[in-house]
Amino acid sequence: MNYERPHRRRNPFTGKWVLVSPNRSVRPWGGSVEAIENHISLPEFDPDCYLCPGNLRASGERNPPYDGVFVFDNDFPALVHSGNDSSENIPAWKQGMMESGICRVICYSPFHNISVSDIDDVSLLAIIDTWVDQIDELMDSIDIGYVQIFENRGLMMGCSNPHPHGQIWASGSVPGEVDSEDYHQAKYMRDNGTCLLCDVQRHELAEGERIVLENDHWVVLVPYWAEWPYETMLLPKHHSASLTDLDNEQKNSLTVIWKRLLLAYDNLFKASMPFSFGWHIAPADPRDIKSWHLHAHFYPPLLRSATVRKFMVGYEMLAEHQRDITPEEAAERLRLSAV
């Protein structure tokens, strides 16, 4: 297949297709131009920031004078404890259900003016250990079916506070994206007798074309089916279902490749790269635990510079996702930006 001509690629995780149109990457741009964000201009401590140590939050709670990682229940949670649902006599098309859950905020650092790419390896390890502790605690609840760890970085991705932080949403149900990945990984295992992501990384490491970074325990690649321009996937070389399966050597190795990837993103356009990032761990009750392979998704919206973003509109909303540069070209640019 000629990758330089318009073509479609199938996402084996979801069964959906993405249209790749390399010829569009050279078109003139007269659309929206975004502002460049700069953490360096921020103060180390902001008395008006509800995430900084010692400050009062909107709930009336005051943050402790924390000096490392700090986790608290979100003051404005998207999920709360719900009562019983007693829907009766509803039409077949009108499906709905109550949803219970817990939402938490995880502050990565007490310092207001840094990002994760500025944090030292010891502190990164503390973040990973906190993720593991939170998964252990929340998955232990009989009401929780899934724990989603994620971060929205930058105003462009809807982040309401520049203080370095992420979120943890634990839900009673398995979210749609995770449920789709669970289904397709289990189906791949039934059809082929092997793990989908083990096969993906084995092929990609041998070919090398879409590999961005690797070390002894981890691989970063641009998926063959990537939708966003500089989308990447981070996955362990050793088959693991959750962050709770990692040993100390794997966690230490994760801090190194995580930071290298973030620096590559920041170097790409010489600016702090906005993105949404999140881990996909096995649900509390997966279809087939042997088929589930731990991984993280990074979805940066930037297309051709620090001020020009990719908009998922029009054709993407009405037909199928479309990208302007090939995953192979994206991987090469990120490799050149890595340190």
What does this protein structure show overall?
With 339 residues, the chain is an alpha+beta fold. It contains six helices and 14 strands. The strands form three sheets. A nine-stranded antiparallel beta sheet has the order 3-4-6-5-10-11-9-8-7, sandwiched between helices. A hairpin with a 3-residue loop joins strand 7 and strand 8. Helix 4 packs across helix 6. The model has no long low-confidence stretch (mean pLDDT 92).
Keywords:
single chain; 339 residues; alpha+beta; 6 helices; 25% helix
Largest sheet: 9 strands, antiparallel
Q: Quaternary arrangement of the chains shown?
A: single chain
The total number of structural domains is 1
Strand order, biggest sheet? 3-4-6-5-10-11-9-8-7
How many alpha or pi helices? Answer: 6
DSSP summary, beta strand count: 14
Element pattern in H and E: EEEEHEEHHEEEHEEEEHEH
So what's the CATH class?
Answer: Alpha Beta
**Content of β-strand:** 15-25%
CATH architecture: 2-Layer Sandwich
Helix-and-strand structural type: alpha+beta
Q: Find the CATH superfamily.
A: HIT-like
Shape: globular
Distance between the termini: 32 Å
What is the overall pLDDT average? 92
| Poorly predicted tracts of residues | none
Q: What's the alpha carbon Rg, rounded to whole Å?
A: 21 Å
Helix content: 10-25%
